[in-house]
Structures are given as C-alpha cells and as structure tokens.
Amino acid sequence: MGIRPQSGARSRRTAALLSSGLLLASVLASFVLIGNFPSELAEAAGPTGPNPPLGIHLSYLDDPTTAVVTWQTASPATSRADWGTSSGGSYPFSSSGVDYASPMGTFLHAVTLSNLIPSSRYYYRVGDASMNSSYGEASFRAAPPKGSTETFSFAAAGDWGNSQATADTSNAIKAVDPNLVLPLGDLYYSPNETIVKQIFQKWQAFGQSSFVEPALGNHEHPSTQMWHTAEDIHCAFVNLPGNERTYAFTFGNTLFLSIDWGLWSNNTSDGVDGTGTSCGGVSGTAAIRSWVDARLAAANLDPNITWKVVFQHFQCYDMTTVNYFPMCPSAGHPLDQMEDILTNRGVDLVLQAHEHTYSRSHPVKFHNVVQNGSAYDTPGAPVYFVLGTGGDPRTATCRNDSWVAVCRAPTKTRVRYAGGSDLLRPRDRRGSADGHVPERFVGRGLPGPDEDDGVRTLHGLADDDPI
Ligand SMILES: [Fe+2]
Question: 46-140 belongs to which CATH class?
C-alpha cells in the first residue's frame, strides 16, 4: 500500500471470515436538508496557524486497519497526524506523512493512520510536524472488517464543479454522515488546480469524516475544451487503491468497483483497466472488460463478498430520452461494452452520472424487467441509478419504458415505483423542487442474522410522491 508519490504495490483484498449479512446503503442524490448533526460530528476547532491544512479528506485503500488522510496547504509544510479513540486531545498514536507536489505545484500531504481497529470511531488532528498549523478535531469510523455483516452507508453523486450547489450537496452529505462517499466523475470541470483545490475544500464537509472514493468522468481527461482536468492532477489529489482510475475495494461484505471509460463512452480505445501504478493501466475497452470480468469473477468466489456495486461516470441505462451513447446496447447503439459482464457476474447496483438528473431503474437485463416490486430478490440483473446531481441538476424528459422505476428529471416527473414504505424514514420523503431526492436501500445477505432462508433481497425505497 502506498501513498503518492511512493511507488510500489498497493495491497489487494485479503480473504477470510464468514459471508454476508446486512447492508444498509444510503444512495444519496443530493437534496436539501438541514438537520441536526450526530453528536460525533460536532467537531471542535478547525484550521489554526499560518499555513493550515485545507481540503482534508479520508480515503480507503482496501485495508480496514488503515485510513489515509490527504490535505493541501498554501505553502510548503511538513505533515503529521495524531489520532486515538477518545475525543478531546488525548491522541496516543501519531505518524508523519508524505509531502509532495501536484503537477501544477499544489502542496499536498498524506498520512496513513495504521493499526486501526475496524469499525471503531477515531478522533484525529492533522498539521505540520510541530502542529504550529493544524486542523482538528475531526472523526471517522474505521472501515468494517471484510465480510462483516454490520451496517454501513454510502452516498453517491456525480457532475460536481465548483459552485454553491456543490457546497450545498457536500453539506447535505455530511448531514447523513455516510461511511463512504462515491463522487461519480465530472468532478472539477477545469484545467486550473485552483478550482480543484476549492472543490476539495467544499468536499471537506464530508471528506474529513467519510472515505472519499471518486470515479473518473469524461471531464477528468485531457481535451481541447478548457473545462477538462488532466488525469494526473486528479490522481495527485486522491489516494486510492490500485491505479486510482479503474479500481476495486471490499468494504464490509460489499465489493465496490469503479471504471474509468475515458473521454468518450463510444470510443473503445480510451479509458484504462485496473493494472499498473498510479494513473496507469492498459487502455481500451477490451482490456477494461477483461480486468472487470476477472475481478467480478474473483468476487464471486470470495466468501467475504455478498454485494457487488459498480460505480462509474457513463451510463448503461438512462431513464430519460437524452440518449447519450450508452455503455450497454440500446436502440441505435448496439455496442455492448459491459452489460453482459454485469449480468453474468451478478452485479447488484450500478451507480452512474454524466446526465445531470436523478433516476433509477428496476432490475433490468437487456431491457427486460426482471422484477418490479418492492423487493430485490436475487433477480440476476442490476438496478441502475443516474445520480448526476452533485452540482448542477438539470431537466430532461423521462422515458416511458417499463424498466424506468423512478425518474426525477424535473421536466416530467414519473414515479413508477411503489412499496418499501415500512422502511422509509420521514425525512426521506423530502424531495426538493429542483429534483434532489434521497433514496435508501436495505440489503439482506445470504443467510445472516435477519434472514435464514438464504434469499438475497434488496429492498429499494423511493419517495413515491410526485414533486
Ligand atoms: Fe460527463
């Protein structure tokens, strides 16, 4: 496991333990919510000193006994983190970090917090070696053991940019305090690192207490258009497993796999597979397919993994009529770059963005609806989300197809999903007029404490009130 700019292998999964159990995943399409923060989020202090840490975010390198904290400073600095399991300044553990520069000269720092007890809450501060400038106290929950049946949560949204809406979405995610945040590509929309820095400063709202594991979008690739960010700038600001572009990690009993398909969804020579070191990989759809298929096949043999979630920028299924060139075959776009793999390997959820709307499909396989009730019961086909509402929600016309379960594109509201009301929380019903809608999923694993019939179910919950 390494932190940029150190090279070398990053550790992969380790096997062991028992299978499955309970997964609670909050899939959050940004929404307006000002709530009472959990007490553990009432973190004291903040930045102090002349050159304080900024843009602080955690990342998970596929090892629940470690966490990486990354931040930026305005001028050169050393780095150090102090941490422990008690709040208030007694930190029995401390480590220095790696100090490095991004391609355009941002001063970046990363410290690995090690020997963590999985699932335990930790309190920490970061700063220079003497703590003359520092940030703290913040806290987070270490990742659960692999194969654990305990509940965890995640939030996902794509298409961010640097706006007030980005800050609002970041604060809304912080309010639900997820364990993981999955930004779904099109993160920065700028070649200027000043913008990248400012976005990470907005993300700090959740990044200081959640593991931030982004996917790359088309706007994270060089282009003659000036609102694109080079891959190596992105890779400098994140610290992720593998090559940081196409990668996978196991969090509890769930495999998360992110794919960088490159600048164009219909170009079969761009994007990268999951090999190589930071920002590396072999280009092209054939290599990507081979790597993804092998990784999912291995997951199916891993007793630690019950659920498989793919998160990426481009869409396989679009619940609106916008019809960007999809990764899965559809009318006028016969090329299948991944749907055969997703269905063959039993992927449960596919989180997508690119289009700035919110929607969800029923479990669907080559446009055939497999189930359309309130329970996801081993259907052998994924549920697809579009969650492109991180910073700039827009309008679109919803499709009439039977596989459309929920579509919140504001020009035409269609809600064809029913059920699950027993699991809805009151605040989940609060969808704002601009189409921000949260959803929650509860999955029951192969047989666990709540389920003894061996049936894998995923209850999809939706606010079925029209906006
Ligand atoms: Fe995009």
Answer: mainly beta
What distance in angstroms lies between residue 114's CA and the mean position of ligand 1's atoms? 36
The CA 186 to ligand 1 mean position distance, Å, reads: 5
The domain locations on the chain are 22-39+147-460, 46-140
CA of 314 to the centre of ligand 1 (A): 7
Q: How far is the CA of 324 from the centre of ligand 1 (A)?
A: 10
* Residue 146 exposed, middle or buried by CB count within 10 Å (0-12, 13-18, 19+): buried
Given pLDDT bands bounded at 50, 70 and 90, which one contains residue 377?
A: low
Q: Read off the pLDDT band of 437 (50, 70, 90).
A: very low
User: How many angstroms separate the alpha carbon of residue 261 from the centre of ligand 1?
Assistant: 11
Q: What is the DSSP letter of 147?
A: T
417-439 mean pLDDT: 31
Task: Report the chain's mean pLDDT, rounded to a whole number.
Answer: 80
78 CA to centre of ligand 1 in angstroms: 36
Straight-line distance from the first to the last Cα atom of the chain, in angstroms, rounded to the nearest whole number: 46
34 or 378, higher pLDDT: 378
State residue 226's pLDDT score. Answer: 86
Q: How far is the CA of 216 from the centre of ligand 1 (A)?
A: 9
Is cis: bond before 137, omega within 30 of 0?
yes
Q: Is the pLDDT of residue 212 over 60?
A: yes
Q: Are 108 and 102 in contact (CB under 8 A)?
A: yes
Per-residue pLDDT band for 44 (boundaries 50, 70, 90) equals: low
Spacing, Cα 267 to ligand 1 middle (Å):
14
320: nearest Cα among 401, 434, 393, 384: 401
Peptide bond into 5 cis (omega under 30): yes
- Architecture per CATH, domain 22-39+147-460, reads as 4-Layer Sandwich (3.60)
